[in-house]
Amino acid sequence: MAWLHRRIAALSPGCRLWFVSGRNDEGKIVSNPSVGYGSHTRRYADGEVREYYRVGMSGNTAGVSVYLMGIEDKTYLPKTYAGRLGKAKVTGYCITFRSLKNVDVPRLEEAIAVHLNVGSTPRHP
Fold first, then answer.
1. What's the total number of domains in the chain?
2. At 86, is the secondary structure helix, strand, or coil?
3. N or C: which end of the chain has fewer CB within 10 A?
4. Neighbours of 72 (CB within 10 A)
5. Could you tell me if residue 48 is inside a domain?
6. Sign of CA dihedral 34, 98, 84, 105
7. Left, alpha or beta for 47 (phi > 0: left; psi -120 to 50: alpha)?
8. Is the dihedral of CA 24, 29, 33, 36 positive or negative?
9. Which domain holds residue 21?
10. Is 0.90 surpassed by the pTM of this model?
C-alpha cells in the first residue's frame, strides 16, 4: 500500500490528501479506514452535498481496494478495465485485488490517472 500511495500521489502532485477513519459522527465504524486523493463534490442519497476524495485506497480482508469516486456511468470501469487488470474485481467505482503482483500495474495506474485528471464531474473516454 505504501508503494501505491507514492504512485497515486506522484500522478497528481499537490492534490488534496484525505485521511478517513471509517467512523461516523457517533464514533461507530461504518467503513474501512482509507486514504483519499484529490476532491470532487459528492451528492448523497438524502440530498446532502459534500466534498469528498476523487480516488481512495483502503486495505481490507480482500486485499486492497482502489475507489474511483463520482463516475456516473457505473458500467465504465467494468467495460474498460475488467479483464485488463489481471486478478482484480472491478465494479462501478472500485478495483479490488489481493496484491500488486496480481494486477497489471500500468493498467491500474492508467485507470487512476484518467480519473485524477478529469474535471469536477468525471467524464471518461
1. 1
2. strand
3. C
4. 10
5. yes
6. positive
7. left
8. negative
9. 2-116
10. no
